[in-house]
Design brief:
Helices cover 32% and strands 11% of the residues. The protein is of the alpha+beta class. The longest helix has 16 residues.
Length: 149
Amino acid sequence: MADAAAKAALKKKRTFRKYSYRGIDLDQLLDLSQEQLTELVTARARRRFNRGLKRKPLALIKRLRKAKKEAAPGEKPEPVKTHLRNMIVVPEMIGSNIGVYNGKQFNLVEIKPDMVGHYLAEFSISYKPVRHGRPGIGSTNSSRFIPLH
């Protein structure tokens, strides 16, 4: 009887999905050097890293480190605003909050392990998706015909 209760309690306990990026789990991913990470990412990102990180992306990473360091243990770090939509998410950024500019406002993005290798722009949509409704003025004559009764 106690054995069945223990099994039920174990089943109830939530298990988290173990994250891995291209076969490498999260803790190992955080320990990788720049060169080792470069070998893992896609060709476009690999080219970008090989050509060197410029001043602005390095400044963003530096500000993210500072925000993480100043955050209390167990708390989320303060959001860091940026216009760098073309910044590739690296493992060091995981857990940070970034305000990504979309041309009008800063959209808050919390960096998760699944985002590694993607661009920040992918998480901050820069246009308002089209909502198709009724045809308006300027559409074809037949589709805007309204009977007078």
